[in-house]
């Protein structure tokens, strides 16, 4: 791990297991200064953009490459799980319940006699789907509301700030239990909807702070003086310069949303069988923990690696986008 | 200072009302509070109507909310549908969860801050890298997985502790659950302290303190730590509410009969009064903890003054 890496705490803290916290997330604070590193004009002498510069940094970062490959692999198996498995995750043979590893079934069998390897592979689909879709929802809703509040200020801004305060005061897992316990749907949508509902305030705070910082820049004042409309100011001048912290926090949040889905499924309110989810499998395996620990360990390991991959990716992107380096 | 406290208390009111109203609506609109009363079968309409009238469920939701809040402020949290007073449930559940939270916070302060100071002072050393990697792993593994694994290893395989906690839940049985509950926050506290220490180490006042010949431990504790702890205090303060709400997972793993257990039961049985009552108290705890943290700033950092 490179020295002086950036701390993810301010960014991830709000979506930890089961709680919301207002740490006064400030992207300037979160983007801690890193000693050394690239910057300045490119070899051709042309000034590079923030994004090409960041991409150059990322390509050289081994941490980024390793975890980006892990994520690509996860996306691949969630799109085509049959590429590396032969059976169906729902074909179970009760007579083989709790059996250990054997040829053709490297991870053994769980308490219902289902193949743990197949179920672990198919579980990736749920996690990736929930993570990606929930993050998209949170990012769009949160950044639009936050950007508008930050740009226009006034009463709308105050109201939005109070609303986010309200959402921060509700513990996430608790809200999930209350809201999701009455829903009987067996799709990923209620879980995604719930995460968007409780996740957007975090992103809207980041976007708001970021837009307020960007709108004070001279080029924005200049554009305004030249008669640019509000929508042009926001879309052409402010958004490109305010979007970096949102992307970083959203990437890290993606990992924590995956963990949240698993936690809710573990508690029995997220996804329900016959859906295939790591949280369901871990919950189902916990009573047999004495006789068949492998049924618990494989999905847990897969879950941990997935969450870790997204958090590390977000961390690496933060390193690369650090504006203080330029 | 007094005026600041009053202003903060006034600001808490809309947040409190909003959060409780939101939970109240979730419970009432989403669920059917009567359904839980007739067990597994459908309530017959006459009984349902009678029960609705008895619990005031036939009134509009806003009316129910106002009545409920009016009662709460006179200390009446209502009756759970099994006839037990919700305050009675709270009296048995909260001490357990408070003990659990206290242990978790002690772990955060003692282990988290210590590791943070050690790594912050030795940036780039193998110890630093090792601890940083460990914190990342702890952050990435969800709490319920950490809990189940530690329960498997310490409780079942090695037999160091009892895998589940007895109903009295004394302090010594709560040590491992407390560590599990604290684990993610512990990692954050370590990283936060580390960043803060490493940043302040280069500051002028530390150089001055070293230059005037103060012993190293005095520089670290009195000068460096006091200035570096401000973000950590914010985090731990906000964490109190988070830990009490997040205890629901830990309490389920170790079968602890605390707030999380009661809430879980209340939600499963669609017991409106229990759920809303407990959540109301948790929201209050969260808000008050945040207020206390803000006031603590002035103690830790004399530069901060509240007019």
Automatic annotation (TrEMBL), chain A:
Q: Where is the ABC transmembrane type-1 domain?
A: 124-314
Q: Which GO terms describe its biological process?
A: transmembrane transport
Q: Which InterPro entries match?
A: BP-dependent_transpt_permease, MetI-like, MetI-like_sf, OppC_N
Region annotation Disordered: residue ranges?
A: 1-20
How does this protein lie in the membrane? Multi-pass membrane protein
Entry keyword annotation includes Transport: yes
- Where does this protein chiefly localize? membrane
* PANTHER family listed in its UniProt record: ABC TRANSPORTER PERMEASE PROTEIN (PTHR43386:SF6), OLIGOPEPTIDE TRANSPORT SYSTEM PERMEASE PROTEIN APPC (PTHR43386)
Question: Member of which family?
Answer: Belongs to the binding-protein-dependent transport system permease family.
The name under which this protein is listed is: Peptide ABC transporter permease
What is the protein's species of origin? Streptomyces pilosus
From TrEMBL, chain B:
Where does this polypeptide localize? Cell membrane
Q: Which organism is it from?
A: Streptomyces pilosus
Q: What is this protein called?
A: ABC transporter permease
Q: Does the keyword Transport apply?
A: yes
Gene Ontology annotations of biological process type: transmembrane transport
Bilayer topology? Multi-pass membrane protein
Query: What transmembrane ranges does the database entry give?
Result: 12-31, 96-118, 130-154, 174-193, 232-254, 274-300
Q: Which family does it belong to?
A: Belongs to the binding-protein-dependent transport system permease family.
Q: Which Gene3D superfamilies match?
A: MetI-like
């Amino acid at each position: 791990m490179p020295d002086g890496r950036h701390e993810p705490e301010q960014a991830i803290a709000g979506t930890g297991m089961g709680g919301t916290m207002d740490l006064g997330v400030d992207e300037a604070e979160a983007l801690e200064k890193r000693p050394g590193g690239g910057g300045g004009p490119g070899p051709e002498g042309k000034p590079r953009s923030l994004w090409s510069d960041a991409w150059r940094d990322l390509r050289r970062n081994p941490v980024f490459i390793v975890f980006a490959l892990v994520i690509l692999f996860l996306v691949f198996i969630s799109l085509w799980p049959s590429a590396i498995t032969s059976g169906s995750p729902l074909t179970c043979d009760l007579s083989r319940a709790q059996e250990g590893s054997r040829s053709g079934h490297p991870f053994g069998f769980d308490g219902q006699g289902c193949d743990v390897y197949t179920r672990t592979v198919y579980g990736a689909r749920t996690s990736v789907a929930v993570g990606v879709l929930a993050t998209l929802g949170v990012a769009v809703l949160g950044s639009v509301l936050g950007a508008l509040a930050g740009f226009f200020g006034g009463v709308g801004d105050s109201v939005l700030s109070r609303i986010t305060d309200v959402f921060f005061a509700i513990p996430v897992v608790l809200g999930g239990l209350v809201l999701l316990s009455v829903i009987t749907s067996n799709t990923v949508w209620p879980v995604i909807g719930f995460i968007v509902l409780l996740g957007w305030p975090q992103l809207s705070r980041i976007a708001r702070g970021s837009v307020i910082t960007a709108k004070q820049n001279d080029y924005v004042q200049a554009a305004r003086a030249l008669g640019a409309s509000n929508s042009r100011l926001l879309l052409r001048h402010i958004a490109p310069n305010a979007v970096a912290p949102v992307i970083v926090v959203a990437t890290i949040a993606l990992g924590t949303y995956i963990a949240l889905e698993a936690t809710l499924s573990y508690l029995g309110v997220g996804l329900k069988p016959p859906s295939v989810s790591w949280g369901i499998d871990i919950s189902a395996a916990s009573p047999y923990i004495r006789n068949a620990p492998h049924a618990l360990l494989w999905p847990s390991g897969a879950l941990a690696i997935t969450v870790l991959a997204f958090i590390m990716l977000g961390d690496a992107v933060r390193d690369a986008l650090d504006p203080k380096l330029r | 200072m007094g005026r600041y406290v009053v202003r903060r208390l006034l600001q808490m009111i809309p947040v409190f009302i909003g959060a409780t109203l939101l939970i109240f609506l979730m419970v009432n609109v989403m669920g059917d509070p009567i359904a839980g009363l007739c067990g597994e079968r459908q309530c017959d309409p006459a009984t349902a109507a009678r029960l609705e009238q008895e619990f005031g469920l036939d009134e509009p939701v806003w009316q129910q909310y106002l009545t409920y809040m009016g009662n709460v402020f006179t200390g009446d949290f209502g009756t759970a549908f099994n006839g037990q007073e919700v305050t009675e449930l709270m009296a048995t559940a909260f001490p357990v969860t408070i003990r659990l939270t206290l242990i978790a916070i002690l772990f955060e302060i003692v282990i988290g801050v210590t590791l943070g100071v050690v790594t912050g002072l030795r940036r780039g050393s193998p110890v630093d890298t090792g601890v940083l990697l460990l914190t990342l792993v702890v952050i990435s593994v969800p709490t319920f997985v950490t809990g189940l694994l530690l329960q498997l290893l310490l409780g079942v395989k090695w037999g160091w502790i009892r895998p589940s906690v007895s109903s009295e839940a004394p302090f010594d049985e709560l040590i491992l659950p407390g560590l599990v509950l604290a684990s993610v926050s512990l990692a954050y506290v370590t990283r936060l302290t580390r960043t803060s220490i490493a940043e302040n180490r280069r500051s002028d006042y530390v150089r001055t303190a070293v230059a005037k010949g103060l012993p190293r431990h005095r520089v670290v504790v009195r000068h460096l730590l006091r200035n570096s702890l401000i973000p950590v205090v914010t985090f731990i303060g906000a964490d109190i509410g988070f830990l009490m709400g997040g205890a629901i997972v830990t309490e389920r793993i170790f079968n602890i009969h605390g707030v999380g257990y009661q809430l879980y039961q209340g939600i499963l049985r669609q017991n409106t009064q229990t759920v809303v009552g407990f959540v109301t108290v948790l929201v209050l705890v969260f808000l008050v903890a945040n207020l206390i943290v803000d006031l603590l700033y002035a103690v830790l950092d004399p530069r901060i003054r509240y007019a």
